[in-house]
Design a protein that fits this description.
Layout (H helix, E strand, L loop, with lengths): L1 H31 L3 H33 L3 H39 L7 H15 L4 H12 L19 H13 L5 H8 L5 H4 L5 H25 L6 H11 L5 H18 L1
Helix pairs in contact: 1-2, 2-3, 2-5, 4-5, 4-9, 4-11, 5-7, 5-9, 6-7, 7-9, 9-10, 9-11, 10-11
């Protein structure tokens, strides 16, 4: 009799976890504006231990019930409540982080005329490029944060003209220093710093992922600027024109990043025109 009961408990636990996780992903993606896939990967990497604990409690209830009787139910319920409380606290903290990053991202572009929505577009584009290049979940999450905050170093500066024409080194270095003060944004900070070539990046970090992330951010920032300009001029750029733009503006960008960025950005430009 125990084997069927144990099997039913495992099936019920898996169904419960799947439904709860899906509802949390939908809610978090809706409030943060991020893609469902990125949110799901990020949350699964962070909370799988909690779900494993819940599954173990469900199985343990079935196993100990024959010997403990009805006492097994309140004991396991209390343990489950403690586990869920910790899970809820973790989610509140994570959502608070996301909301703070979103607010700071909006602030970073308030003083720039016609730039509303730029950082979100760059973040979305950068994650898509990173996924095409095979970056892992942890790096995609850092790339998303870096995309949202890649221009935070421009706060307080009087910027005239397109951002792409402004000295990159000055505001990327400042932005990396701001983000570097937050431990969980350390990876994003190095990607922000690496939006420029030369000793400013190579001397500061040794991570290949940070340099690739910085190149992706730079390419996506340039392409998003071009998409906006073309939209105003009612002109649709071709992939070859976008690739030429990147090579002319920043010859240091890796060929693989240029190809992936142009492939992702070209439909975006078509939608804006």
């Amino acid at each position: 009799m125990r084997k069927p009961g144990l099997g039913m408990a495992m099936v019920a636990t898996i169904a419960y976890v799947a439904i709860e996780f899906a509802s949390l992903v939908v809610q978090h993606a809706f409030t943060s504006g991020s893609g469902y896939r990125l949110v799901a990967n990020s949350m699964l990497r962070s909370v799988w231990q909690i779900y494993l604990g819940q599954a173990c409690l469900g199985v343990a209830l079935v196993v100990v019930y024959p010997s403990m009787g009805l006492w097994a139910i309140p004991v396991m319920t209390v343990l489950g409540a403690i586990l869920l409380n910790g899970f809820a606290l973790y989610l509140r903290v994570k959502i608070a982080y996301q909301e703070t990053i979103g607010a700071l991202a909006k602030v970073s572009e308030l003083h720039l005329s016609g730039r509303q929505g730029h950082v979100q577009e760059v973040a979305n584009m950068a994650v898509a490029v990173g996924r095409e290049l095979g970056l892992g979940v942890r790096n995609l999450e850092a790339l998303n944060y870096a995309g949202l905050l890649h221009e935070v170093g421009l706060l307080g500066q009087d910027v005239g003209g397109p951002i792409a024409q402004v000295d990159v080194v000055s505001w990327t270095t400042k932005g990396a220093e701001i983000l570097g003060a937050v431990p969980f944004l350390a990876g994003a900070a190095e990607m922000v710093r690496c939006q420029t070539a030369g000793d400013e990046c190579a001397g500061a970090v040794s991570s290949v992922e940070a340099r690739i992330g910085g190149a992706i951010l730079r390419a996506c920032c340039l392409l998003e600027d071009e998409c906006r300009l073309r939209a105003d001029a009612d002109s649709r750029p071709t992939p070859s024109e976008l690739a030429q733009l990147l090579r002319e503006r920043d010859a240091w960008l890796p060929a693989g990043v240029v190809t992936a960025a142009v492939r992702v950005a070209n439909p975006e430009c078509s939608e804006q025109v």
